[in-house]
């Protein structure tokens, strides 16, 4: 057995040889490194979100809170990476952009990012690209030609989200509330649940008497943190793209800035955890 070293434990030979630039452009290494690092963070986020979901179904909201706190910190790191990428000037990106988007390649194709969306509860399969002249509908699962990838994403989309697991927990803690969560196994969760006044009523009880329900209150606030960071991620993506490529078509032929604007606005209107946001309205409206 070879000696375990820092380098061998981290497989640095493999890791550091993965930055295979397609051009001689000085800034291409920046682009490659940031996106590869994002995918590593995505892998960790998926692992942690799965752990938080298990904790919620086990009725351990304190452990779920701890794990989701870590996920939130990862989100903040990910948001910060847009600041680094925004140092890329338009002329620097133009030199190697054609290599990035060759054969229709685009960050929109990130499999792990899509899995994270599904785990958080963003399960719209059909996305609309408004090109300014027409609207193109894209199925975010069918767009992948590899049947293995399609099966992977279909399975992930059908799994319960973090919020599904949370509602299961609330149903157990408040059996008189009439919440009817879908079971953890044997049911398709592909469609997100609609707003439920019974769920709102439970969250309102929790927020009105935080001392009696502190662990659930903290869990609710952590879910708000996740959705807030999810929105901020989209906005920073939007502003970075605007800074680097303006309103031009995105890599891979996507609608670029127009699509990012659309998704950013949708994030402010179509909530992942609607009842938690409704509670905020109710508090300030004196309900």
TrEMBL record:
Entry keyword Iron: yes
Record-listed substrate binding positions: 97, 251
Cofactor binding, per record: Binds 1 heme group per subunit.
Amino-acid positions noted as binding heme in the UniProt annotation, renumbered to this chain: 237
Named cofactor requirement(s): heme
Similarity comment: family membership: Belongs to the tryptophan 2,3-dioxygenase family.
Record's protein name: Tryptophan 2,3-dioxygenase
Organism: Abyssibacter profundi
Encoding gene (name): kynA
């Amino acid at each position: 057995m070879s000696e375990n070293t820092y380098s061998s434990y981290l497989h640095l030979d493999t890791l550091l040889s993965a930055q295979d630039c397609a051009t001689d452009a000085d800034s291409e290494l920046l682009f490659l490194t940031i996106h590869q690092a994002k995918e590593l963070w995505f892998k960790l986020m998926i692992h942690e979100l799965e752990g938080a979901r298990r904790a919620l179904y086990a009725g351990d909201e304190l452990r779920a809170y701890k794990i989701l706190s870590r996920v939130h910190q990862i989100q903040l790191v990910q948001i910060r990476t847009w600041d680094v990428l925004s140092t890329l000037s338009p002329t620097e990106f133009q030199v190697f952009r054609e290599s990035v988007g060759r054969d229709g390649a685009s960050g929109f194709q990130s499999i792990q990012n899509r899995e994270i969306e599904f785990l958080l509860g963003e399960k719209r399969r059909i996305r609309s690209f408004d090109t300014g002249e027409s609207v193109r509908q894209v199925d975010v699962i069918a767009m992948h030609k590899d049947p293995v990838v399609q099966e992977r994403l279909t399975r992930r989309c059908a799994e319960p989200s973090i919020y599904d697991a949370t509602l299961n927990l609330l149903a157990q803690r408040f059996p008189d509330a009439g919440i009817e969560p879908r079971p953890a196994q044997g049911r398709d969760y592909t469609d997100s649940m609609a707003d439920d006044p019974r769920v709102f009523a439970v969250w309102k009880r929790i927020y009105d008497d935080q001392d009696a329900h502190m662990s659930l209150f903290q869990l609710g606030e952590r879910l708000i943190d996740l959705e807030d960071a999810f929105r901020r991620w989209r906005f920073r993506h939007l502003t970075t793209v605007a800074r680097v490529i303006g309103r031009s078509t995105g890599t891979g032929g996507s609608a670029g800035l127009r699509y990012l604007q659309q998704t950013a606005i949708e994030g402010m209107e179509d909530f992942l955890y609607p009842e938690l946001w409704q509670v905020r309205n109710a508090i300030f409206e004196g309900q």
